[in-house]
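Revision sheet: structure tokens.
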Amino acid sequence: MTQEKSRAQQLVGDIAPKLAELTDEVLFGDVWARPGLSPRDRSLITVAALTALGRIDQLRSHLNLALDNGVTRDELAEVATHLAFYAGWPAGISAATTLKQVLDAH
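Predicted:
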């Protein structure tokens, strides 16, 4: 039986296997599993950080994860709107258009 590859393995496993391993084992296997914050809260924080930093490629997958973790579409839209005033208008617009694409495909 073949085990399905993680998203990190799919993205960079062939070019940067250690990075994929650290992503799976440390980031998602440890940091995201810590009890101090719920997965929902971690998703909100991560979406906010990725929006502020303009990391649209990573934002796309984390918007999907946020939806899976119980963050609503209205809450995600509010994050984009709110951060437009703190991270800059382009960051907010980029997050909102990325959210629209994610919701259309979800």
